[in-house]
Amino acid sequence: MVRNLWTALLLLGSATCGSSVPVSQSPDPEQSCPYLGECNSTINEQHIDTLMSYVDSEQNPCEDFYAYACGKWRARHGSHTTATMISESQINRQYEDLFLQLLRNPSAPEYGYPMYAKVLAHYQSCIVLEKPDLRRYIELLDRELLASLNSMHWMHLLAALGRYGYHGHYVQVEVRWYNATHHMIFLQPHNHHLNLTLTEDIYDALSQDGSSWPPLHQLQEQFKGLEQNLVRLAKPHSADDTFRNYSLEQIRTAVPALHWDEALRTQLGRTVAGNHVFQVDDLDAIKGLVEYLNTADTLLLNRYSLARFLSHLLELPHNPLATWRTGQRSRGRSCIRHMRRSVYLPMNYVYERSFYARRRHADELVIHSVFQQLQSQLELRVEHNVFNLSQELVNSLQAKVHQMRINVGNLPPNVSEQFYWNSDRRWSVGSDFYENHLNSLLYYYTLVADLESSTDQEERDIWYSFNMHTPEFPDNIDATPYFYCLGNIIFVPYSYVRRPFFDANFWPALLYGDLANTLGHEIMHALDTDLVDYDARGNLRNFSDQLGVVELYNGAVGCLNSSAVMLNERTSDVSGSRLALQTYGGDWLTRSGNGRLYFLQFAHFFCGDEGDQYHDSGSQRLNYALGQVPQFAEVFGCHVGSGMTSAEQCPFW
Prior knowledge:
Blueprint lengths: L4 H9 L27 H13 L11 H5 L3 H5 L5 H22 L11 H12 L7 H7 L1 H5 L6 H9 L8 E7 L5 E7 L10 H7 L9 H19 L9 E4 H7 L5 H9 L8 E4 L2 H11 L4 H18 L16 H11 L1 H41 L6 H12 L2 E4 L8 H9 L7 H21 L3 H7 L18 E3 L4 E4 L15 H17 L18 H5 L3 H10 L6 H18 L1 H5 L1 H13 L13 H10 L2 H7 L17
Parallel strand pairs: 2-4, 5-7
Antiparallel strand pairs: 1-2, 3-4, 6-7
Helix pairs in contact: 5-16, 6-16, 9-13, 9-15, 17-18, 17-22, 17-25, 22-25, 22-27, 25-28
């Protein structure tokens, strides 16, 4: 028995929250194991001690539960540290230890599996970097291409750079995930929200080709003038910037001044049929841009493209060159963070085989069971139809909830080793970091381009069962579970399936306190104020327009729409917490130790979170969400009108 466990439970049972609350004769929590035959008590006891180490008993939980539950978090972990950051750091350390071990033992059995040898080669090429040499990126593109910047058509160079995933200016051709079963080619005008910052490092890398370049300040002015013209032509003249379907033949007819077939062949590596359908945004703007660019200074346009490409590479998450300090060699941890973005599939295969596979069966059993409970509860809630929606809309929303999928981990489920050997063969790795970085980008974007045209149903089923992140995705995308509207699927990444968030051995209060609340939040994103418009198959519909004319629904949304950074996050916090409690429910919650542990475990997710452009701070999110669930006040015995009970109750789902 962990020394402080029963002291912790007694403290929970005797908390004074503004009014008396009956304390169970048995303050210990329910110690059953809901889905496994037996749970490890030590794991639970240790975790309860951890939760209690963050509690500030001087604070009143009925006035500010965050201050109570997370009051000592900062003293233990410092400022700007969250539980997700700690989890990510632990995973990076696991990678680093594994790589060092394998590099010392070249006969290790892991070398007999796909991906390992190439992952280690990429890692080695990164950690031996002596100093940045951005010129290497340019040299590796194509020497003939670089020798003809003065005469090469601007779209040819742009298409060549597009093979590495760069498509931010002039005319953007990009392959994206479109719905639950398809990728599509998207065509857009110049991104007028982004401008180039031509740094001295980028200028020096580009101007080493022997040709006469204008001084840095002069080129900066030339690029600025070019961007002003591009913005003028690309910026939409109306609020309607939605995509429309066009066949390639229609695009050729509308914009005849561009050799579309050649550009697509260069970027995608294949010929595209005339009846192939694209998603196109503002074809008129694209036509105007093409006509302008065809008469502009060719050398200037191509130099601008190369500068934008280098800038893009440096801005990719965790490129070790972007934060280089003179005299410092690259460190293993920074290379691992870089590789987790640039070679997503290989790195996650290594993690699965070396660390996660032995736990997967138990984790999936528990997580899928809780998910199915939440799913069933939400289906019933939608069917109950408290907003008096049309039956057609109710049926569509029910289908969306019913057909929602969940994937545990960062890889496709139930695929053979052959899938990874086939993927391994597509990926080229050498001893040069710059070449490996470009090849990793080529590997990803070539695969995506091929997937867009594939008719192999088995192959498509695999690739649409998980989200192989683009190298541009920020860290927060898979730091915690997330709902992906295009696939109608929830992904539960490796960084979440570990303590403090989850353990298959958790007792009910700990299991539901985080897992059910987190999954409930993500499930409710399917019905939030932004993502509700995507149907069961990930296609964009007009559900929000239909909801927008329903008085009861508008009242529920309006009730929540105050002092929130993002309304859709607040709606998911509130409705997800209610869904989790409804799913947990029963006798488990009524026992005093269970209720308090449940809410402390829920709070732990938010400790140290200071918020971002998409989320309120952890304290705001936690206190507001729990203020919307009356069970919290019942468990802690809070007076009406206390800080945690003062919010207006909003009936959103």
